[in-house]
Amino acid sequence: MDKIEHLKNFSLKDFCTIKIGGVGKVVFFPKNVEEISFLIREYGKENIFPLGIGSNLIFSDGFIDKVFIHSKNLKKCEITQENDIFYLTLEAGVSFKTINNIVKKYNLEGFENLSGIPATVGGAVAMNAGAYGSEIFDILEEVWWIDKDGNLIHSKKQDIKHYYRYSQFQEEGFVYKVKIKLKKSNKDISSIIKQHLLDRNKKQPLDLPTAGSTYKNPPQTYAGKLIEQVGLKGYRINDIGFSSKHANFLVNYKDARFKDLINLLELAEKKVYEKFGIQLEREVKIVE
């Protein structure tokens, strides 16, 4: 166990994009599937929490008694080609920026709508990340994952439970590696990706620490629109607030506190329910 790279009593602020949180018990940085399996068997799956970029995570203040497994050393990437079809086999720590570079190099289509999401492969598959009407499961073929007993399982997409912003890996298993399918395009993929990134910069508050979309969009409407219509766009409690640029984004103005963030979420949920009868469902994951 001590041979696996790790940190004890570490700052959780450094492991999430919104920069909120207290102290974590220990975080390991395994470099292969054997080390992941060992950690799961050693500590028990119920005590383990996987980490990537942390773009949709919010940690509570104080001490969090969990064993975290971070994917920063799991970055192997294999590319195979069959005529105009490309298969990318990616370990959990491969970033979407890396995939962007690959799809631009070979001019591949299928990933461009996801291109601006701040994510690693493991977290994206676990939450079925999506944007512009696309989601990662649209291009996913296979997943290699580790179950609660430390066994490596290989599953085809059709055998994995998933729907909007959800996959079974939120409850079970550690995503170790995935295979995605893309194809050669006649379109200028680099230009499309560039435009998506420009749109994101224009519409989203990327100049401040944020956790991405706070709520899932309810059927036939948008969470940001509902939050705006109850008067909370730009509203803040101390250093946490809903962005004045996009109401479905929480932003940390300087030194936001977890208790203020929870109070703000509860206020938004109460106001939206009272006015529209809609129960907002959180997309961000609260870890306490």
Q: What do these coordinates show?
A:
The chain has 288 residues and is of the alpha+beta class. The chain has three domains: 6-70, 2-Layer Sandwich (Uridine Diphospho-n-acetylenolpyruvylglucosamine Reductase, domain 2), CATH 3.30.43; 77-190, Uridine Diphospho-n-acetylenolpyruvylglucosamine Reductase, domain 3 (2-Layer Sandwich); 208-287, Uridine Diphospho-n-acetylenolpyruvylglucosamine Reductase, domain 1 (Alpha-Beta Complex), CATH 3.90.78. The chain has helices at 33-43, 96-106, 121-127, 189-203, 223-229, 258-276; strands at residues 6-11, 23-28, 48-51, 57-59, 63-70, 77-82, 85-91, 108-109, 130-131, 134-135, 140-146, 152-156, 162-163, 166-167, 174-184, 210-213, 236-237, 240-242, 249-252, 285-287. The longest helix has 19 residues, at 258-276. Its main location: cytoplasm. Residues 20-185 form the FAD-binding PCMH-type domain. This is UDP-N-acetylenolpyruvoylglucosamine reductase. Pathway: Cell wall biogenesis; peptidoglycan biosynthesis.
